[in-house]
């Protein structure tokens, strides 16, 4: 008897069961054993517990090479679609581990609406704050005082990291994670830094946007996005240290370290997210969790908007346009960080945890 399930639209409650069904077929075939880390990891077990499925789903980078190499994809009665099956299980795990759980489920089902509502409300709130005489400083602080800005953004930074920590703890317990050694972290961070699993496991690239043709474009776009974000985060960190430890408050000159890091990171982030958005329109939506396609695209565009408005602010500093651009940029940054535990951004944390766990299991 064949089991014919549309894995691209599997309901969250069915996601793990469907992924288990498909992986059991793969484990019997093993044609894709030389592909990305998912397949060597899969062969360690004959049966898959829920935690095993969660681990394999978060280890998957959705390169899609397995789908285009598989002889059991539709219209075969086995109806295999491993990228979609693992994508649905992965999305289900993020929703289930999210803190608070109710908000994780809400964003999972209504991500675009939640994102739009938060950014609009934040823009209106910042414009309202600007209408009061709370500035008086230099640069951006002439429009919003340093203390007001800190009081708004500290909760937006602290709460997401706490929520992510809770989610990762839940993930670690479900997947059977043990005490982490330095060697595990080195292996995991090396894989994450090079995005090794986006090369299809054989160094030829992935099939994300070119079906049966290999390409490294998605890998390069991810690297530009990742390193662009890290450079922007480094710019903020350096500026904070300069302000509070070295008593060197903003604004900073164009050749200062915060500006150099921020400009470089902003350009990389713009280029990377723009390319990722384009590639997403070229890829087959049925080879991933298609029910959250809009939310994922909205997140990519939000990250692009964060970097683009930040770059615009650099160039309009000293003009009246700052009064209009500053709320747009701050609102997008606030929304990005506040929704990080529930948006596509969470995948970076869970995939890193999966790489650490995989390094443990290999030992």
Automatic annotation (TrEMBL):
Family annotation (InterPro entries): Citrate_utilization_prot_B, NarG-like_sf
UniProt key word Membrane: yes
Q: Which segment of the chain is annotated as a signal peptide?
A: none
Task: Write out the entry's keywords from A to Z.
Answer: Membrane, Transmembrane, Transmembrane helix
Matching entries from SUPFAM superfamilies are given as: Respiratory nitrate reductase 1 gamma chain
> What is the superkingdom listed in this entry's lineage?
Bacteria
The keyword Transmembrane helix is assigned to this record: yes
| Transmembrane parts of this sequence | 111-129, 149-168, 224-245, 257-278, 299-318, 324-342
Give the residues annotated as coiled coil.
none
What is the protein name for this chain?
Tricarballylate utilization 4Fe-4S protein TcuB
Q: Which organism is it from?
A: Hwanghaeella grinnelliae
Q: Which gene encodes it?
A: tcuB
